[in-house]
Design goal:
Layout (H helix, E strand, L loop, with lengths): L7 H26 L10 H55 L7 H24 L1 E2 L2 E2 L7 E4 L5 E9 L7 E9 L3 E7 L14 E6 L4 E6 L5 H10 L1 H4 L1 E5 L6 E8 L4 E8 L9 E6 L2 E5 L10 H5 L1 E4 L4 E4 L2 E2 L1 E3 L2 E5 L3 E7 L1 H4 L3 E11 L1 E4 L9 E4 L10 E2 L3 E2 L16 H52 L3 H27 L10
Antiparallel strand pairs: 1-2, 3-20, 4-19, 5-15, 5-20, 6-10, 6-12, 7-8, 7-11, 9-10, 11-14, 12-13, 15-16, 17-18, 18-19, 21-22, 23-24
Helix pairs in contact: 1-9, 2-3, 2-8
């Protein structure tokens, strides 16, 4: 059947040509952009997924950049701390050198003090000058701010804390087992009675964590004389002696608290000591000032000649619900959200109960090391003030006490105390360097590696959804080009078909 007004075949050819042109345009667009999805209509679900993955990629890239920046900040702080460590080592040498009293003139001691003053000034200058983009790193600017410190807290340090936005952290400790010194009791029943021995001597060896000393006492030596003799060597042995109120007994105790401390008494020669109840006793577990009368070890026993020993005890406590590791009166926890150490005073460390230690209100060096901006992706580390007025502690004193005119100067001050302060300062600076090093290696380094792997996988996932497959698209391009060419040819033939009707007109 021939028609002139309506050419169905031409319409069919036009429709197919239009579809083939659109398919060809789509192939050309995908090949020119390299993307399979260029707009929502290409794949609505795929577009949503790929846009989410792109957002994650941007966050991960930013987190990697943040981690690298954190590493740079730590490097600058480490540089300042390294120089302070060198200065403290030099300071330790100057103190030891000046202690050679007879071998040094007063002028040499004063010259050493001038060097010490210069070192202290340099440390303060480094503390105030070490900065990153104008932000001071070692002057306490990045330390944590605290309030409401309990009177039972002798010292404390906040190494890390994650604070919610405008939030505080109340640090509470619960003491479940008290800290104890090592301790023994010597009962001599008053002045020594060596059975009227003229040439014999009661000989004991006192040993502590610092060392030992053998002491000899003649008949008639009073308990106070024995106490004085033992205390003469406390710096050598680490053992202190004192009388027990209301008795003639002698209490021997370690200077410090904790399981690393011990007191040992070995009877080298009992010299046939006489008297009721003489011997070595342990102390009551609930009362460190009372001898346990059921625990006597006679001076002339084999046990006494081999040595009687008592060990101290670390405080057992929890901090904010986490079991703390302890050393003497100091308890510490180190978790992802809170890293603190608390040193309790003697009374508090020996009493069971709750201690509202302090409240952390802010501060710390904060870094965003994850793509999601929340408290879990935030890392915080405290960088304490390393100024000379801060290095040391309340018990020993502070580094600034070594300057001219202060109690621990090397000209006429306490050199033993000065050396202890410097040793504590070295421990604090090296501890801070260690924490920064661990932060760089284990936190920042691991974060960068983990985020890099995550970025690779996220990029691969986004690519598989959104990117064009060139092998597929070039095949489709060839197919669509052929179809467009064929459709055009067919349309031309279809447009010629109505002319056949003219043959019917003769």
């Amino acid at each position: 059947m021939s028609r002139i007004n309506t050419n169905i075949q031409s319409l069919i050819a036009q429709r197919n040509l239009g579809q083939n042109n659109k398919a060809l345009d789509l192939s050309l667009e995908r090949l020119s952009t390299g993307l399979r999805i260029n707009r929502g209509k290409d794949d609505p679900a795929g577009l949503i997924a790929s846009e989410n993955l792109r957002s994650e990629k941007a966050s991960i890239n930013a987190a990697i950049s943040n981690a690298e920046r954190a590493d740079q900040v730590a490097n600058i702080a480490e540089g300042g701390l390294q120089e302070v460590s060198s200065l403290l080592t030099e300071l330790q040498g100057l103190i030891t050198n000046t202690a050679n009293d007879t071998g040094l003139s007063d002028d040499e001691k004063k010259a050493n003090q001038l060097q010490i003053d210069s070192i202290l000034q340099t440390i303060d200058r480094i503390a105030g000058a070490t900065s990153f983009q104008g932000k001071k790193l070692l002057n306490g600017n990045l330390d944590y701010t605290t309030t409401s410190v309990d009177s039972g807290v002798e010292d404390f340090r906040v190494n890390g804390a994650k604070l919610a936005y405008n939030g505080d952290i109340d640090v509470k400790a619960i003491v479940t087992t008290s800290a104890q010194q090592a301790g023994l009791v010597l009962s001599t029943n008053g002045a020594l009675n060596l059975n009227n021995g003229v040439n014999s001597a009661f000989t004991i060896e006192i040993t502590g964590t610092l060392g030992s000393r053998q002491l000899q006492f003649a008949s008639g030596t009073t308990a106070q004389n024995i106490i004085d003799a033992i205390n003469t060597f406390t710096d050598v042995t680490g053992v202190e002696a004192a009388s027990i109120t209301g008795t003639s007994s002698i209490k021997l105790s370690s200077e410090e608290f904790g399981s690393n401390e011990f007191v040992s008494v070995r009877v080298v020669d009992d010299a046939n000591i006489q008297g009721s109840g003489v011997g070595i006793y342990t102390l009551e577990s609930q009362d460190f000032n009372t001898a346990d009368t059921s625990s006597v070890t006679a001076f002339n026993s084999t046990t006494a000649s081999n040595g009687v020993r008592d060990t101290g005890q670390d405080v057992v406590a929890t901090i904010n619900g986490i079991v703390a590791t302890a050393d003497g009166k100091t308890a510490r926890i180190n978790s992802d959200f809170l890293d603190v150490s608390i040193t309790l005073d003697t009374t508090t460390a020996q009493a069971r109960g709750t201690v509202d230690a302090f409240t952390i209100t802010g501060g710390g060096a904060k870094f965003q090391l994850a793509g999601n901006v929340d408290i879990a992706g935030n890392v915080s580390i405290g960088i304490s003030d390393i100024a000379t007025r801060k290095l040391g502690n309340t018990t020993l004193g502070y580094l600034s006490d070594l300057s001219s005119g202060n109690n621990n100067n090397v000209v006429d001050g306490d050199l033993n105390g000065a050396q202890k302060i410097v040793s504590e300062a070295i421990n604090q600076v090296s501890g801070l360097r260690g924490r920064l090093g661990a932060f760089q290696k284990n936190t920042v380094g691991a974060t960068i590696r983990s985020l890099s792997v995550s970025l690779e996988n996220t990029t691969a996932a986004e690519s598989s959804i959104r990117d064009a497959n060139f092998a597929t698209e070039t095949a489709a391009l060839t197919r669509n080009q052929i179809l467009v060419s064929a459709s055009t040819q067919i349309l031309s033939l279809a447009n010629q078909q109505p002319q056949a009707a003219l043959q019917l007109l003769g």
